[in-house]
Amino acid sequence: MEEAAARQHTPKVAFVAPPKGYTASSGKHVDSGDIHLLVRALSMGKLHHAMKGTAAAIPGTLVNLAAGGGERNAVTFGQPSGTLRVGAEAEIGNGQWTATKAIMSRSARIRMEGWVRVPGGSF
Predict the structure, then answer these.
(1) How far, in Å, CA of 83 to CA of 17, rounded?
(2) What is the dihedral of CA 13, 15, 16, 19, to 10 degrees?
(3) Of 75, 81, 67, whose CA–CA distance to 102 is shortest?
(4) What are the Cα distances from residue 38, in Å, to 32, 71, 89, 122?
(5) pTM for the whole structure
(6) Mind listing the domains of the chain with CATH numbers?
(7) pLDDT, tens digit, for every residue of 27-69?
(8) Phi, psi (deg, nearest 5) at residue 40
(9) CA–CA gap between residue 62 and residue 65 (Å, rounded)
């Protein structure tokens, strides 16, 4: 508890649920058929607009079950900023799971639009 109190970025809490249509923060509608599960994560007390990885490759985890269960190596998250396809390959050895491969994509979004006025004679 002491260590967590001193580190603002931990713990991270995530909520997962079966797919359902929603409106992303950009205003775009995401259909339930376009995703495997919904994910919402909190970081430093605020809703996080990105995902770091997946536990969907390990059968029986909450993420795996929310995505429909069974063996899978990739899922598409429905997250606040849209969709994100992520995956992993994992194997069990000596009673412990080990990730052997990670598959990540990035959901690019516009960070800024605008004009910059440069006074004449600046160059």
Answers:
(1) 14
(2) -140
(3) 75
(4) 9, 18, 21, 50
(5) 0.64
(6) 2-104 (3.10.310.10)
(7) 999 999 999 988 888 877 777 765 656 677 778 888 888 888 8
(8) -130, 130
(9) 5
